[in-house]
Specification:
Elements (H helix, E strand, L loop, with lengths): L5 H21 L1 H7 L9 E2 L5 E6 L6 E5 L9 E2 L1 E2 L4 E5 L6 E9 L2 E3 L7 E4 L2 E8 L6 H4 L9 E9 L4 E9 L11 E5 L8 H4 L3 H10 L7 E5 L37 H11 L9 E6 L1 H12 L6 E5 L10 H12 L4 E7 L5 H13 L5 E5 L5 H14 L3
Parallel strand pairs: 13-14, 13-15, 15-16, 16-17, 17-18
Antiparallel strand pairs: 1-2, 2-6, 3-4, 3-7, 5-6, 7-8, 7-10, 9-10, 11-12, 12-14
């Protein structure tokens, strides 16, 4: 026979309580029927750029909110309890940006039951909100605006190299009509991500819609594949079922080939199923972290297939005293790619690896562009890098 401990019972009661609160936050009629519970709206974006969080739990002893709006990631914004049982806290004025956060109730982490907008990053769920002050700022760029929208689709394709049917996300610009051909940008995720990462966390479709509408980049197809050769698709979307994602799922199985070695399966599928410009000058590849490493590997393996390369916080390691690597790099730059672009935050833990790559390129006088900004290994930077890279290509 199974018995609940006191701590387990308390925790389960709180989960039930928060679920009810979430329903009440969405249904004012139900609130009136069940009693004088206040209607909670959270977060509230104030006119001065501050953001107010509200959370209802009269039995809680300590409540706080934490997110990437804090200068120190681990810093918590303590909430104050009001007489009606609503805990509240307001940030300082925030810059235009997309932010994520969660709420801590007596040491337990929860998503905000009053906010239905949630993203998954590997196995962590967080609420999101956007601050925007004017047209053209980051918040506006990451928002869904009144412009022509492209189509975002989850697409299955066969990978003969990996011996799998695999899934990817494809963005078709609003101008795509099946008649005119378009250039293609291949956009790769990082470790722990999957084919949904750039669409959900990276706001890729919103960024592309807005840049195209403003005439800042050319209309293009964007292909976001799954970069994990031992996983066919995002968790819950292939035959392994609803396992807990941890960034290393099924790696122990090994794979028939690497992501880089199988990459032409993706290119061939895209060229055969969509109206693409099947030339080097109409192909670009870029990725973050692990995806940046994949981009670097792809540049070595297929030096004349793509004309634009973007390494974002890339895990791209220089192979010193390796004649094969030297020959690959020599062939790549002899082919004169139109862009070899490196971007990274000054606090990124992969800075040393990127520094070594730049030193190698400098020593061989290989041309490249470099961009460095504040911050570390975070989505806030990768959204910036995508925005910049998309404006540099196919012009």
């Amino acid at each position: 026979m199974f018995y609940l401990t006191k701590d387990m019972t308390t925790f389960m009661k709180r989960i039930l309580f928060l679920a009810i609160c979430g329903l009440l936050a969405l249904n004012g009629v139900a609130q009136q029927q069940l009693g004088q519970r206040p209607r909670v709206t959270s977060p509230v974006i104030n006119a001065d750029g501050t953001v107010t969080f509200n959370f209802y739990d009269p039995s809680a002893q300590q409540v706080s909110v934490s997110g990437d709006f804090s200068e120190i990631r681990s810093e918590r914004l303590r909430m104050t309890k009001q007489e009606n049982g609503v805990w509240t806290a307001t940030t300082k004025p925030l810059n235009p940006e997309l932010y994520s956060y969660s709420i801590s109730v007596d040491g337990q982490r929860f998503i905000d039951p009053a906010n239905s907008y949630v993203n998954r990053d590997i196995s962590t769920l967080s609420n999101i909100f956007i601050v925007t002050k004017e047209t053209g700022d980051k918040g506006h760029l990451y928002s869904v605006n009144d412009v022509r929208h492209g189509t975002l689709s989850r697409v299955w394709y066969d990978s003969p190299t990996l011996g799998q049917q695999r899934r990817m996300t494809v963005y078709l610009p609003a101008a795509y009509d099946g008649k005119k051909s378009f250039p293609v940008m291949y956009l790769l995720h990082g470790h722990g991500g999957d084919e949904t990462a750039w669409g959900d966390l990276g706001r890729a479709s919103q960024i592309m819609d807005n840049l195209i509408a403003e005439g800042k980049c050319v209309p293009m197809i964007v292909v976001m594949p799954n970069g994990n050769p031992t996983c066919n698709a995002a968790p819950g979307w292939w035959h392994e079922g609803m396992y807990t994602p941890d960034g290393n799922a099924f790696n122990q199985r090994g794979a028939k080939a690497t992501m880089e070695e199988s990459f032409m399966d993706i290119v061939n599928f895209v060229d055969s199923h969509y109206k693409t410009i099947r030339k080097r000058e109409a192909r670009a590849v870029t990725g973050l972290s692990m995806g940046g490493g994949h981009t670097f590997g792809i540049s070595c393996l297929y030096p004349e297939v793509f004309d634009y390369y973007g390494l974002q916080s890339a895990a791209g390691r220089v192979r010193r005293n390796d004649a094969k690597f030297d020959a690959q790099m020599a062939k790549l730059f002899a082919s004169k790619p139109k862009l070899f672009w490196i971007a990274i935050g000054k606090d990124d833990f992969l800075m040393q690896m990127n520094t070594e790559l730049r030193e190698y390129l400098d020593a061989h006088q290989y041309p490249y562009e470099y961009y460095e900004n504040d911050g570390g290994h975070i989505w806030r930077n990768w959204r910036i890098y995508l925005t910049m890279f998309a404006q540099k290509i196919f012009k």
